[in-house]
Amino acid sequence: MNLLIDASKKEFIKFVLFDKNKHSAQKYAGVKHDYLIYIDKFLKKYNLKPKKLTGVAVVVGAGGFTSTRLACVIANMFAYTLDIPVLAIQANQPFDPADLSDKLKKRRKSVFVSASYSGPASIGIKKSITF
């Protein structure tokens, strides 16, 4: 079973468990830094332990800067610790479980993803500081 992490919407984070034939999704509203708590709840809902994951996909190119970076870090963490493939997909890419499952199976392990964003980061610095 594969896991999709989608933090492309500001109102919620979405997780999808999928394989070629089926998928189950859940949205969680709230604080984004609680991703791991939400993933744990989501996997427990389907009686699935993380070590049973065979691949992980993460949505990039939309959503907040921090949300996207956190989602990518968590996806890479699962890929590294479980020795499974990880794949970044664009937010505007249609979700096709069979196609995504095939892409994950073909993807080499130990190749990690990096975040891409819809625009430049806005981290709150309003004026430059000179020394």
TrEMBL record:
Descriptive protein name: Gcp-like domain-containing protein
One Pfam entry name: TsaD
Ranges where the Gcp-like domain occurs: 38-90
Source species: Candidatus Magasanikbacteria bacterium CG10_big_fil_rev_8_21_14_0_10_40_10
Signal peptide (UniProt feature, chain positions): none
InterPro entries for this protein: ATPase_NBD, Gcp-like_dom
Superkingdom of the source species: Bacteria
